[in-house]
Specification:
mainly alpha
Amino acid sequence: MKEVITSILEAESKAEEIVKTAQDKSKELLLKGETEADELKEKTIAFVKAKRKDVLKGAEVEANKNYNARISQGEKKAEELINTAQDKIDAVAENIVKEIIG
């Protein structure tokens, strides 16, 4: 009978050890998971910030190209209008001179 009680006590002791080891391992795995999740979060945030910066820079470059193209078109149109107006001014001035001079 004493052997049975000793055997039961040893089994309970081993079971407690197994449970404690499992709890420790579980805590360790949980902590490791949380640490890895935090690291992944930080890496993701850094990646998104860098990507956002690149996208904004690309958008700025594209906007500047569009702006410069429109300015160039406007300058050409203004030059055409000036030339057209100059031709008309010259013609009108010539007619006025002819009327005055005869």
